[in-house]
């Protein structure tokens, strides 16, 4: 089936009042404004208390500061502060001004989770991607029981992050909806939606098929993560750096990795993949021009032979070939041969690739201390 026939529902944008944004700006000003390795690690006070699986997880183990919890433990057996992840998120105060770590004990948490824009500085810390899993199975065509309308792509997300300064580590986000064939309508099924600014994911898994990771908006850093899907399984209008990640395709026939929504040269968005590895099945486009000015770059990546020789798709609109920025630099593997690439993609020089190679692509010097 032609690439242009792969549909997507309208995603829209999030809105908030000016008062709310001012409150959140004050919250950020109260924090040092940087994400560090400590923000994605198990709290010292919890680890020091011991426990059956190497860390203390009881109610008494949670660290406190100023009378409020800075570590919230989620445990399905009732020995933590909440039996559900959403219950733990609900315990974070609106307008939060400091890092709160939500430590999620091993288990399969079958629930939808949302971290609203009013709750920045939240970390979700699992006990290993094979042990801590948040999963749901909504698709875009599913009906909302309250309104009777389809939930759409945006609200199909198993986990939705709308707040700034979010972190996650050692946890799996999954949408377990049945696989969608190319051209299927309403089968978009998002595992994780990121709409906040300045987010970091470390050693996380994001699993699904069509539209797995909705990289909606903001600046994001994915380090040593595994992302699985089939069609446009990384999509959106964020500006994100994927470093040392595994991109695993589960396409039944044709598929695509990245669909950048960038629609104007004034939008500083796009996806940069550095030192990543592509594995899996099907025949994959490296990227598709969802937006007229889509921007996707692969550097130092190991690309398996499942990459289609032409490499890139214009979304069925030839005019986009004049405005997209699709580039490759110093990649290897059977799928890295550029001899049959579409003529409007680019094989970059080091000077051209350099702005995409490190955290400066996402202004990391302003918010990452790693």
Brief digest:
The chain has 370 residues and is mostly beta strands. Helix content is 8%, strand content 33%.
How does this model look, in words?
Keywords: Aspartyl esterase, Cell wall, Hydrolase, Secreted, Signal. Its EC number is 3.1.1.11. With 370 residues, the protein is mainly β. It has one domain: Single-stranded right-handed beta-helix, Pectin lyase-like (Pectate Lyase C-like, 3 Solenoid). 8% of the residues lie in helices and 33% in strands. It has 4 helices and 29 strands. Strands 6, 7, 9, 10, 12, 13, 15, 16, 18, 19, 21, 23, 25 and 26 form a 14-stranded parallel beta sheet that branches. The relative contact order is 0.10. The model is unreliable at 1-30 and 50-60 (pLDDT under 50).
List the helices and strands and how they pair.
Blueprint: H1 18-30, E1 35-36, H2 44-48, E2 64-65, E3 68-69, E4 71-74, H3 85-91, E5 100-104, E6 107-110, E7 113-115, E8 122-125, E9 132-136, E10 159-161, E11 167-169, E12 172-175, E13 192-194, E14 199-202, E15 205-207, E16 213-215, E17 219-223, E18 226-229, E19 234-236, E20 239-243, E21 246-260, E22 270-274, E23 277-288, E24 295-299, E25 302-303, E26 312-313, E27 325-329, E28 346-347, H4 350-353, E29 368-369
InterPro entries: Pectin_lyas_fold (IPR012334), Pectin_lyase_fold/virulence (IPR011050), Pectinesterase_Asp_AS (IPR033131), Pectinesterase_cat (IPR000070)
Domain Pectinesterase catalytic: 72-364
Catalytic activity: [(1->4)-alpha-D-galacturonosyl methyl ester](n) + n H2O = [(1->4)-alpha-D-galacturonosyl](n) + n methanol + n H(+)
């Amino acid at each position: 089936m032609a690439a242009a026939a792969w549909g997507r529902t309208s995603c829209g944008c999030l809105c908030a009042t000016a008062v709310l944004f001012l409150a959140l700006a004050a919250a950020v000003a109260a924090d040092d404004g940087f994400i560090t390795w400590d923000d994605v690690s198990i709290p010292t006070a919890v680890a020091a208390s011991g426990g059956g699986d190497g860390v203390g997880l009881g109610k008494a183990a949670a660290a406190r500061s100023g009378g409020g919890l800075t570590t919230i433990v989620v445990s399905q057996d009732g020995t933590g502060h909440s039996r559900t992840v959403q219950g733990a998120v609900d315990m974070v105060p609106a307008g939060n001004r400091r890092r709160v770590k939500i430590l999620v004990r091993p288990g399969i948490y079958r629930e939808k989770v949302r971290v609203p824009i009013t709750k920045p500085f939240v970390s979700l810390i699992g006990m290993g991607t094979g042990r801590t899993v948040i999963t749901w199975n909504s698709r875009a065509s599913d009906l909302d029981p309250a309104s009777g309308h389809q939930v759409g792509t945006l609200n199909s997300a198993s986990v939705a992050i709308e707040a700034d300064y979010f972190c996650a580590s050692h946890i799996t986000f999954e949408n377990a909806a049945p696989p969608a064939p190319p051209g299927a309508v309403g089968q978009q099924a998002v595992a994780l939606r990121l709409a906040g600014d300045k987010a970091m994911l470390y050693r996380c898994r994001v699993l699904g098929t069509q539209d797995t990771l909705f990289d909606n908006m903001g600046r994001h850093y994915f380090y040593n993560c595994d992302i699985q899907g089939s069609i446009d399984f990384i999509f959106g209008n964020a500006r994100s750096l994927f470093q040392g990640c595994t991109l695993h395709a589960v396409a039944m026939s044709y598929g695509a990795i990245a669909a950048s929504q960038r629609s104007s040269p004034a939008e500083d968005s796009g996806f940069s993949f550095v030192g990543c590895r592509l594995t899996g099945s099907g025949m994959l486009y490296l990227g598709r021009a969802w937006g007229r000015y889509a921007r996707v770059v692969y550097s130092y990546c190991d690309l398996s032979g499942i990459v289609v020789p032409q490499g890139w798709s214009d979304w069925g609109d030839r005019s986009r070939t004049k405005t997209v920025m699709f580039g490759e630099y110093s990649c290897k593997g059977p799928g890295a041969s550029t001899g049959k690439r579409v003529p409007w993609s680019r094989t970059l020089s080091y000077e051209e690739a350099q702005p995409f190679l490190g955290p400066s692509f996402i202004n990391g010097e302003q918010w990452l201390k790693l």
